[in-house]
Specification:
- The protein has helices at about 1-10, 20-30, 90-110, 110-115, 130-140, 150-160, 185-195, 205-215, 225-235, 240-250, 255-265, 270-285, 285-295, 305-315; strands at about 60-65, 65, 70-75, 75-80, 80-85, 85.
- The protein is mostly helical.
């Protein structure tokens, strides 16, 4: 279907922010969800409570006969893992380091204008395996629920940069899996989504569009999901707005026809209008409503819109 093929290709109207599907496919091949930390010997193969740390902090382990220590910083429990006498980074420090390394790579390879306008080949970053492996650890050890707002923002920055690879958030994949790095739980996904709705910087737009699209993997529209999607729909970024509209349509939002009317009348982008027609054709399935919008579309310019209208008429 033309619309689905254009979903990624026409993600942005900004020049040079378009990448080929061949490169996407190539980038999927070298990731492994297997973490080096899994090779560490866990005494008695069980979790322990260390220095009174609650059991829910599952990174509080006994590793290689060296006890973990707890660093209470600003009232927040942070766990340092000590292996062979050397301390491993806390989750907070590790996420800071991953973001810092990525930003430094951007600064070394792109101008400030290119970075600000998101005209960068994020998939070309040479240390993606380190990022995705660590994300797998956070998922597998159920540590995402322990992240504070700063940690979530750092993680969401990395998720945003991962948009055209699409394995941290599995928005390019069919099926119900929310991540290709592990079994990302819905409650952790929703927690990240809520934080994301509070962020206005353009560098988070790519994370917003992934999250908005991934709600199509859910089977019902709860009050919580509706609130998140409506906030994303009202975002300034057109692509995020479009994918939020589609997810709301798929999940059966009660006022979806009004949102389509609002989108059609206020957004001139032809791909956004394709999104409106897509929701009507795939989810609303109202022939009278479709006829009305096809008549409106006939008055519009745009090669992709005209091609999609032609496909709909042929059905």
């Amino acid at each position: 279907m033309i619309f689905k093929n254009n979903l990624v290709r026409n993600k942005k109207t900004t020049a040079n922010k378009v990448f080929t599907s061949d490169r996407l496919s190539a980038k999927f091949s070298f990731f492994s969800p297997i973490s080096p930390i899994l090779s560490l010997r866990i005494v008695n193969q069980t979790l322990r409570i260390v220095n009174g740390l609650p059991l829910k902090y599952k990174n509080a382990l006994i590793l290689n006969n060296k006890q973990t220590t707890v660093n209470n910083k600003n009232g927040t429990s942070c766990v340092n893992l000590r292996v062979g006498g050397n301390f491993m980074m806390t989750t907070k420090d590790k996420l800071r380091q991953l973001v810092s390394d990525f930003r430094q790579w951007l600064a070394d390879n792109y101008t400030s204008d290119e970075i600000e306008e998101l005209r960068t080949d994020d998939a070309g970053y040479p240390k993606w395996e380190e990022i995705t492996t660590y994300f797998s650890e956070l998922i597998d050890k159920k540590l995402l629920r322990n992240l504070d707002k700063e940690d979530q923002i750092n993680l969401l920055y990395l998720i945003g940069r991962n948009w055209d690879i699409g394995n941290m958030i599995a928005w390019l994949s069919k099926g119900t899996k929310l991540s290709n790095c592990g079994e990302l739980e819905k409650k952790d996904f929703l927690s990240l989504a809520k934080t994301l709705t509070e962020l206005e910087q353009p560098e988070f737009n790519d994370a917003k569009s992934q999250i908005a699209s991934s709600f199509q993997k859910f089977d019902k529209l709860t009050t919580e999901i509706e609130e998140i999607l409506l906030k994303l729909y009202n975002d300034k970024d057109e692509y995020t707005k479009r994918l939020s509209l589609i997810s709301l349509g798929k999940l059966g939002f009660y006022d979806i026809k009004q949102l389509i009317k609002q989108s059609w009348e206020t957004i001139e982008d032809e791909h956004h209008k394709i999104g409106c027609l897509f929701v009507i054709a795939e989810y609303i399935k109202d022939d009278k409503l479709m006829k009305h919008y096809l008549q409106l579309a006939d008055k519009q310019e745009g090669e992709y819109l005209k091609s999609y209208v032609y496909e709909l008429i042929r059905k």
